[in-house]
Amino acid sequence: MDKINIKLLTELMQNSRIPITKLAKKLKVSREVATYRLFS
Fold this sequence. Notes:
Elements (H helix, E strand, L loop, with lengths): L2 H12 L5 H8 L3 H9 L1
Helix pairs in contact: 2-3
């Protein structure tokens, strides 16, 4: 796991209903990258 995955999981633990677009902005990655990391 890298830093992006750890940040993604941390954000989801705090708010599991956050939209992908907001999650991507917080992680400073594209929506596609956030979606890929979440579902792969």
